[in-house]
Amino acid sequence: MNRRAKIVATLGPSSNSKEIIEKLVQSGLNIARLNFSHGSHSSHKKIIKIIRALPTNKTNPIVILQDLQGPKLRVGKLPPDGIDLIAGEKISLVIDLDDHDINYDFTDTKIIYLDIPNILHCLKPKGKILFDDGKLELEIIGISDNEITARVMLGGTLYSNKGVNLPGTNLDIPGFTEKDQEDLAFGLKNEIDAVAISFVRGAGDILCVRDFIRKNSPDRPAIPIIAKLELPDAVRNLDEILDAADGVMVARGDLGVETSPSDVPIIQKEIIQAANQKSKIVITATQMLDSMIINPRPTRAEASDVANAIFDGTDAIMLSGESANGKYPVESVLMMDTIVRKAENSSAKWGHQYKSTISEQTDDASAISIAARDLAQNRQVSSVAVFTQSGRSALLQSKARPDVPILAFTPNINTFHMLGLYWGVTPYLVPFSNTLEKMIRHVEQVLMKFADNQHGQKVIIISGFPIGAMRSTNLALLHTIGSLEK
Question: What is the mean pLDDT of the segment spanning 463-484?
Fold first, then answer.
């Protein structure tokens, strides 16, 4: 059986050539993440063109996921060698947005410049300021008109442009920035398949992006929106975020800094379970094979981490620096593919995904998906074939977690590309069918050619009825291959 969970790989300096991208696809890449915190429009456009021109793209589409930067909180300019922060010393933090007239004379007091607007009124004495993914920690002592005085609690060397986290602070900063709007307009013009948004705090952030998509791409208003869960607010507002978004990303790096590393494993399980129950896509991300940025093999703990995400029921797992700027991008995808396959072979014993089925049967389509899964188990069915225009029927079948492959047939090219997001789904682009007989023949052709099925085997066909009327899913047909010819 093919691998069910999907692999997301971030493309960057280590993986932006045609040769490497082809190798990544051959190694198991399903979703290409373009990180708009880095790179230019021209560099991202080059990658998009390479992906769309792949010979396999007509039969094995690679999903292009645009990841927007959001309001990044960063340190401003510092000396090239950084500055050493020593535990116990006092320092000054100054807001400087123009990146000029920087004073590197630290004779009296060390100064850190912050490239963060509208921050001072959000801070309070005794609040924490973390740098570089929490490696350095400061405690706020005092706040003046444009300066923060702080004491170093956890020291180290700080460099320019490192990230800033302010745990427990409610920042009055818009989540969908002007840069994000420009980047998303570019992405829509270049036909990205899905978009991930950063700094999500509630449903309003998602609705704002969805409104932007409707206005700027009226022919594709339903582009999937993936909400990155990085903040405690996002975890608290998980239900409303899941209702508004098409999927979520468990951004474990920022979650570990904003909460505590000890909280992250529990939060991960809660998010995955909630997303599966609401039939939403869930991607588990950050540092999954982090050591492979510099080493050809992962640690045993990292291999266990990937496998446990599969056992938790995640739809996809993601590589970041490992594939974007690491030494072993292809090896990282190959290793992730190997770990996932072995974990999936043991899922019946150790996994939760077969238990994490749709719990909210809000309509006939959800009920049909669960019925098809149960029928597939009881009647020795070889696969479930779903006919879909929007992709929703395929997503629901994916969330039902059948034991057999899910084949998704669509005449819509945008849906064809998007279907690669879904756990266990293999997409096929076919002509529009207006009769049940045509639909069945499409299924049989694919099964005989690609799935190595034989006459006499059974398949479940899921569709809306009447055929061709573009109705919501309300039909599950148990079909025997070759029976049309009798």
Answer: 77
**Cα separations (Å) of 321 from 74, 205, 414?**
19, 27, 28
Neighbours of 125 (CB within 10 A): 12
Q: Are 96 and 102 in contact (CB under 8 A)?
A: yes
Residue 192 backbone dihedrals phi, psi, to 5 degrees: -65, 160
Q: If we measure between CA atoms, which residue out of 67, 73, 117, 77 comes closest to residue 95? A: 117
Strands 90-95 and 83-85: unpaired
Transcribe 256-272 into DSSP letters: HHHS-TTTHHHHHHHHH
Do residues 21 and 15 make contact, with C-beta atoms less than 8 angstroms apart? yes
Where is pLDDT greater, at 223 or 348?
223
Catalytic residue (one of 286, 314, 357, 415): 286
The model's pTM:
0.90
Tokens for 159?
A: 């460099």
**Contact criterion met (CB below 8 Å) for 420 and 63:** yes
* Of 328, 330, 324, 335, nearest in space to 16 by CA: 324
Cα Rg of the chain (Å, integer): 24
Catalytic one of 6, 201, 228, 373? 228
Report d(CA 432, CA 439) in Å as an integer.
9
The larger pLDDT score, comparing residue 347 to residue 217, is at 217
Coil/strand/helix, residue 187 = helix
200-233 pLDDT, tens digit per residue, is 999 999 999 999 999 999 999 999 999 999 989 9
Is position 286 annotated as part of the catalytic site?
yes
Residue pLDDT, tens place only, 392-415? 999 999 999 998 999 999 999 999
- How many Å apart are CA 188 and CA 197, to the nearest integer? 14
Q: What is the pLDDT of residues 56-75, one digit of tens each?
A: 877 889 999 999 999 878 88
Tens digits of per-residue pLDDT, 287-314? Answer: 999 999 999 999 999 999 999 999 999 9
pLDDT of 356 > 50? The answer is no
In the numeric block, the tokens 């299924």 are attached to 443
Tell me, yes or no, if 33 is annotated catalytic: yes
DSSP state of 472: P
Pairing of strands 164-165, 156-158: unpaired
- Which of 33, 162, 210, 401 is catalytic? The answer is 33
Q: What is the side-by-side order of every strand in the sheet holding 425-429?
A: 425-429, 406-410, 381-387, 458-464, 473-480
Active site residue: 46, 72, 74, 128, which one?
74
- What rounded mean pLDDT belongs to the chain? 89
What is the rounded distance in angstroms from the CA atom of residue 364 to the CA atom of residue 184?
Answer: 35
Please compute the mean of the pLDDT values over residues 250-274 and round it to a whole number. Answer: 92
- Domains of the chain, start order: 6-70+175-348 (3.20.20.60), 83-165 (2.40.33.10), 364-485 (3.40.1380.20)
